[in-house]
Design goal:
alpha+beta; Alpha-Beta Plaits; 4-stranded antiparallel sheet; 10 helices; DUF2179; UPF0750_membrane; N-reg_PII/ATP_PRibTrfase_C; membrane; cell membrane
């Protein structure tokens, strides 16, 4: 629990709220069983309408966590437990109080908009070091006993859920669910990359001392000074290497533009930075 920071709590909460909203107003009314425990719950709800999807998810997660604890041990982490049970409880409350209805009857819009919102929410949850449990647990069990990669295990589980959707709701809705499964996984990866993107800079300037002071005092960062020489002139030069977030990069770029318009700056996108000032290496 000591690693469960307030920022993580807020981001996970917003993430599961987005996922719950998308499921209740897009996926469930359209009967899109796009993999995972939610997909299983949507299928079961079609056979037992009296049971809310949120309640089914809660029961399934309880069973899965108990099974995983007995077969592969604990170690889920407070974040994953909070995210998984938080999602099911929020959905249960929404179904009991708000009585969600479909916002549109168009199957394509339900699939497309639902997938985008789910991907944004899940990316926030995953980026905070949590997951919503569910099929992640099944994948870990398959990995433990059948030595399958986690990624392949997840794909197998979601594919089986998708087949269940085809057999329950028909080929048209089932194929939309399959498409949502594929697009959702890809979109989550892209969103996580975007959330973690930093800027890697190499700067060559005659005013390197002023730039170093600006980086340290104004941006509260540090940099590495590399020694080199010009291939054309043969003169010695210093190359500043620094990694900054997007806002810091804009400030540094504007500062360099003011003091040395002839400076040379190389900029690359970095999708993950580990260490002091960024994500904890542990």
């Amino acid at each position: 629990m000591k690693d469960f920071k307030l920022r993580d709590f807020i981001l996970i909460t917003i993430g599961i709220l987005l996922v719950a909203f998308s499921l209740e107003y897009f996926y469930i009314p359209a009967r899109i069983a796009a993999g995972g425990v939610t997909g299983i719950a949507i299928i079961l709800n079609s056979f037992i309408p009296a049971l809310p999807v949120g309640a089914i998810i809660l029961v399934l997660n309880l069973i899965l966590f108990a099974t995983a604890f007995l077969t592969i041990g604990g170690g889920f982490g407070a974040k994953t437990i909070y995210a998984s049970y938080g999602l099911s409880l929020i959905m249960w409350a929404m179904e009991a109080v708000l009585k969600p209805q479909a916002l549109t009857d168009d199957l394509f819009i339900n699939a497309a908009v639902g997938t985008i919102i789910v991907a944004i929410g899940m990316a926030m949850v995953f980026n905070s070091g949590a997951s919503t449990g569910g099929t992640d647990i099944l994948a870990k069990i398959l990995n433990r006993y059948f030595h399958l990669d986690i990624g392949k295990s997840l794909l197998i589980v979601d594919f089986i859920v998708g087949l269940g959707g085809i057999m329950t709701f028909g080929i048209r809705i089932g194929l939309y669910a399959m498409l949502c499964i594929v697009v959702n996984g890809t979109l989550i990866d892209r969103l996580i990359d975007g959330l973690n993107t930093s800027k890697e800079l190499m700067v060559i300037s005659r005013n390197e001392e002023e730039i170093i002071r600006f980086i340290i005092k104004d941006l509260d960062r540090s940099c590495t000074v590399l020694t080199g020489y010009g291939g054309y002139t043969g003169e010695g030069t210093s190359v500043l290497y620094v990694v900054l977030n997007w806002r810091e990069y804009i400030r540094l770029r504007e500062y360099i533009r003011e003091i040395d318009p002839r400076a040379f700056i190389s900029v690359n996108d970095v999708h993950e930075v580990l260490g002091e000032g960024f994500k904890d290496l542990r």
